[in-house]
Amino acid sequence: MALHITDVSKRFGPTVALDGATFSVAPGEVHALIGENGAGKSTLLNILGGLLRPDRGSIEVEGRAYAPGSPREARERGIALIHQELSLFPHLSVAENVLVGTEPRRAGGLLDRAAAQRRTREVLAEFGHPDIEASAQVGRLPIAARQVVEICRAVASRARVVLMDEPTSSLQRQDVERLFALIRRLAGAGAAVVYISHFLEETREIADSYTVLRDGRSVATGRLAEIANEGLIAQMVGRTVSELYPARPASAPGEPAFEVRGLVAPPVVRSASFVVRRGEILGTFGLMGSGRTEMVRALYGLAPAGEGTVLVSGRETAAAGATASQRLLEGIGYVSEDRKGEGLALPMAVADNITLTRLSTCARAGFVNARRQSEQAEAQARAVGVRAASMEQPVRALSGGNQQKVAVGRLLHQDADVLLLDEPTRGVDIGSKAQIYEAIAAAAARGKAVLFVSSYLPELFGLCDRLAVMSRGRLGDARPVAEWTPAAVMEAAIGA
Amino acid sequence: MKAKTRAWLLRFGPFVGLAAVILIFAFATGAPERYLSANNLRVVLAQTVIVALGAIGMTLIIVSGGIDLSVGSAIALTGVIAALHLRGGGDPFVATMLSVVAGGLIGLVNALVITRLRVVPFIATLGMLGMARGVAKWMADQQTVNVPATWVNQLAVTFPTPEWLTFAPGVWLTVALAVAMAFVLRDTVFGRRVFALGSNEAAARACGIAVPRLKLLVYSLAGLFFGLAGVMQMSRLRQGDPTVAIGTELDVIAAVVIGGGSLSGGEGSILGSMIGALTMAFLRNGTQQMGWPNYVQEIIIGAIIVAAVAIDRLRHGRE
Question: What letter would DSSP give residue A360?
Fold first, then answer.
């Protein structure tokens, strides 16, 4: 076995992050680690990568005991950790990025630049990417090339065990294909790959075997070919999710609440027109770079729009020159796809985050009433199922799924009539997803108009009334979901 | 802005700035032959030595993604230490070495506070700014420390002896050290790891770089330069003055930033920082020759710092 993990456990203060994880990976095997957010996957990878030390349990790498004290030791034993966010040095060259930590030296600590270039070119060629310049600055490379650089780092260090944490979360489909080709090549060369992803379909495509982690414990392990998605999900959440998507009673759509006519937002958005009615969820599918995010941002006044008009409950305004504060007053709410960057105030308390867009409801004469704020926040947190120790806890301390629920909670607290949701379930575990879907469906049932932008097909089909596809900056016509098939959506998204 | 223009700015911006300053004052003073004379160059270079030495160390720190606000206080303290040793009849070379080592120790303490106590560099060195200044005043008994005439006093004079040196020994020393450090930053594994650290600290750690040890090295090495700057300061004043060099850290940071250093780390060069230091020195010199009051000089330098960083933002593009 390339990697053998027995009963590894780890706690942080009162929180048990890992409580007996056990599995093995053979050389050349791609092993999927599956579990909800907070199940202990990242903790386990950090232990393997030498960033954390386990409290209990043993690890063997290629038959020998392994207990790394630092990332450096992990690297020396042939373990490479490829992180969720790309961990590259944008200011340095490809060669420096690939060989960092193991730079070829000459006497006196001098960097052997010629050897570094040669070695890097070898690795790049070996990996089928001689097109990438060893001396190019990484910050200027396209994202797909950057990922190649990152994986070449693992290859250059002759890694025997490669750990990948959500490597596809920032990639679009064609780059995912390329990444998978890279992973297969790694495995083909005899490396053991541990692969973590939230996307089950994708995981099936690349992995041979799986281990499900739940509450820090390994609860199931086996061949992926022998288990259906329902079975995996049941293992992950510890119960059968008979209905991930809430049942939505068919009702006659209300009057138009939000209408967009001829929106143009250079350079990406070329044309978008649609209507969302009260009580309706309009889905918008688009691949990365299609302009889906830019469209929403332009509508909310966060990015400049060129032409077009926006009608909110029949009142017409120009799309150009709108500001977010104006849109907010018109009754529009927005959840950003970029939770950390612009979605939440991470160091601030849950209560502050939830009430931030409508502090007036818990303030008098400019003074915030802490008790009222806390009560209101708690009500919203309960409605969307935020798990937090208290409303005073900083949002940063919550898991990704709970952070996202706080973002949705804030939108609901704002009580906007029109909800613009951009990838509201990105990077969120299945349990949290279900809760977010439920909250969105409930808002629609209360008469809100919802625009739901996503690149995840199942949720669009599970939740939306109508669906429109964005492709190369153009938004197609919205049609009832029943008239679409996943294949037709993909075709529209990829097609001209 | 086009990528080409941006690359051009990145490369030659600091040079263009320096050339513009020299040209403007050469003509504005109405006496280009005087402003561009060898004598005036001697004056400017002798005046630049302190900021330039500081900027060599600061480049290292800023490229690594850190900052050091204690430079001015370190210059005062190390100057006082050298002066006390000389006044006690000590050897000038030993006095110089004491200063340099003291500077290194101040940097080491800064780095230990940053790595062990996990205090951000801004605050750690802000604390040191106060402490080093206090210790300097304490050691000097709140007075200036006069020193006997030794060769140390000749280090940063405008007109050196022997005359064939042309520029002060301190100027030559600064040039040699700048070349050496430029080489270290560009061509050694240590130098490239300093860039890696500033470019992405988390990744540096994950790639097995011993980040705390690297920071200790960076701040200590930079401290040696601040100590040497302290010797130069004492040399120019011919006394150890515990109240000297207040705010010098800002000039030093400005030199690095004008020269293309990024306060978010990963970018900067010794050559650029030297250009930055010279730009400010020529500006000061020019405004003095114009007979403009001091405040004009302060306003212009302030505006140049902002302009340099604005250009920095432009060349990084929007967002």
Answer: G
Question: Which tokens belong to A335?
Answer: 């959840």
Quote the tokens at residue B316.
Answer: 């990084």
Mutate to test the interface with B, among A100, A106, A138, A165 (most CBs of B within 10 A): A100
Rounded Cα gap, residues B3 and A140, in angstroms:
11
What's B60-75 look like in SS3?
Answer: HHHHCCCCCCCHHHHH
pLDDT tens profile B27-78:
888 888 888 888 888 889 988 999 999 999 999 999 999 999 999 999 999 9
Q: Where are the domains of chain B?
A: 3-315
The DSSP bridge partners found for residue A18 are A10
List, for residues B211-231, the tens digit of each pLDDT value: 999 999 999 999 999 999 999
Conformational region of residue A495, where left means phi above 0, alpha means psi within -120 to 50, and beta covers everything else:
beta
| CATH for A215 | 3.40.50.300
pLDDT band for B4, please (50, 70, 90 cuts). Answer: low
User: What chain B residue is nearest to A105 in terms of C-alpha separation?
Assistant: B189
CB contact under 8 Å between A89 and B203, yes or no, is: yes
pTM: 0.75
Domain span holding position A474 = 256-494
Looking at the fold, whether A344 and A490 belong to one and the same domain comes out as: yes
Q: In B170-200, which positions are buried (b, 16+ CB within 10 angstroms) versus exposed (e)?
A: bbebbeebbeebbebbebbbbbbbbbbbbbb
CATH number among 3.30.420, 1.10.3470, 1.20.1250, 3.40.630, domain B3-315: 1.10.3470
B137 or B47: whose pLDDT is higher?
A: B137
Test the A interface: residue of B189, B195, B213, B267 with most A CBs within 10 Å: B189
Q: Is A316 exposed, middle or buried (0-12, 13-18, 19+ CB in 10 A)?
A: exposed
Contact A90/B199, CB-based, under 8 Å?
Answer: yes
For chain A, helix (H) and strand (E) counts, in that order, are: 16, 25
Q: Same structural domain for residues A227 and A273?
A: no
Instruction: Give the count of domains, chain A.
Output: 2
Write down which residue in A208, A237, A266 finishes a domain. A237
Report the percent of chain B where pLDDT is more than 90.
Answer: 57
User: Are the Cβ atoms of B200 and A103 closer than 8 angstroms?
Assistant: no
Q: Which two tokens stand for residue B185?
A: 């930053």
Same domain membership, residue A173 and residue A283: no
Q: Does residue A230 sit within a domain?
A: yes
User: Nearest-CA residue of chain B relative to A92?
Assistant: B196
Strands A3-12 and A15-25: antiparallel
CA-based nearest distance A111→chain B, Å: 5
Cβ-Cβ pairs closer than 8 A, A with B, add up to 78
Report the pLDDT value the prediction gives residue A170, as an integer from 0 to 100. 61
Beta bridge partners of A282: A451, A466
In a domain? residue A177: yes
Same domain as A209, residue A300: no
Q: Measured between alpha carbons, how far is residue B217 from residues A89, A104, A203, B61 in Å? A: 20, 21, 44, 10
Contact status of A214 with chain B (Cβ, < 8 Å)? no
Within a domain: residue A463? yes
Residues A178 and A72 grouped into a single domain: yes
The answer to whether A111 contacts chain B (CB < 8 Å) is yes
Pick B210's closest partner by Cβ from A72, A75, A108. Answer: A72
Write out residues in chain A with pLDDT < 70, as ranges.
Answer: 13-15, 37-38, 84-86, 169-172, 198, 238-243, 495-496
To 5 degrees, how large is the angle CA A151–CA A2–CA A53?
Answer: 80
Asked if residue A474 and residue A403 are part of one domain, the reply reads yes
**pLDDT tens-digit series, residues B235-256:** 999 999 999 999 899 999 999 9
pLDDT tens profile A30-59 = 999 988 766 788 889 889 988 889 999 999
Q: CA-to-CA distance for B86 and B96, rounded, in angstroms?
A: 9
